[in-house]
Amino acid sequence: MTAEAREAGAREDFAADGERPLDIALLTYKGNPFCGGQGVYVRHLSRELARLGHRVEVIGSQPYPVLDEGYPALTLTELPSLDLYRQPDPFRTPGRGEYRDWIDALEVGTMWTGGFPEPLTFSLRARRMLRARRGDFDVVHDNQTLGYGLLGDIGAPLVTTIHHPITVDRQLELDAAEGRQRRYSVRRWYAFTRMQKRVARRLPSVLTVSGSSRQEIVDHLGVRQDRI
């Protein structure tokens, strides 16, 4: 993906394999470029896909991804959440005028009750956008949202990257938790991992980054090896 990709980036009519370029929607429910890895991965992946000659539209929520400049075929579409964990006022309560629809209410209600809403609420917003733009994309690439909104007909075929199961993080925190209240809080915060397990098992295929991650996806999410 270096010399070949750079050469392909100069061509407008063909991708690196000689076929027509794909229109790719790359989804990321968080795009922080400085920590966590999601924004870093999306920045590099989107750039290399554009270098290969494809048209890439990154669709993300706050903190928004920071993409490389100089690639006309690489664009960012902001799909805003209520940004409930932003600095300097994380876990904030939005003003009445900030609510736009029932997804916003779901996002706030989940936060108020100790859960983490963003994978679900981003997937619901993305589903609405993608279905409204049916025909714009050849493929949708989800960066480990694994939300219910991405199941079924979203207007284009779906591929998903799972870097590692968040259930691993959940178990590590439970093992370190002291006291019943702390264990309850951990379980509530990570309640979204039940959704991610269900969604992962229903995906036709999953991409991952290493052999160890593949085994964790099998062991923790119950995805069959032949689908990874």
The structure class reads alpha/beta
The count of strands amounts to: 6
Count of helix runs: 8
Q: Uncertain runs with pLDDT below 50, 5 residues or more?
A: 1-11
- Quickly give the CATH architecture of the domain at 3-161: 3-Layer(aba) Sandwich
The CATH C-level name of the domain at 3-161 is Alpha Beta
Summarize the structure.
With 228 residues, this protein is an alpha/beta fold. It has helices spanning 3-9, 38-51, 102-112, 118-132, 166-176, 180-189, 192-202, 211-221; strands at 23-28, 55-60, 74-78, 139-143, 158-161, 206-207. Strand 1, helix 2 and strand 2 form a beta-alpha-beta unit.
Descriptive notes:
With 228 residues, this protein is of the alpha/beta class. It has a domain of 159 residues: Rossmann fold (3-Layer(aba) Sandwich). 39% of the residues lie in helices and 12% in strands. The chain contains 8 helices and 6 strands. Strand 1, helix 2 and strand 2 form a beta-alpha-beta unit. Helix 1 crosses helix 2 and helix 3 runs antiparallel to helix 4. The protein is globular, with a radius of gyration of 18 Å.
Question: What keyword list fits this structure?
Answer:
globular, Rossmann fold, 12% strand, 39% helix, alpha/beta, 8 helices, 6-stranded parallel sheet, 228 residues
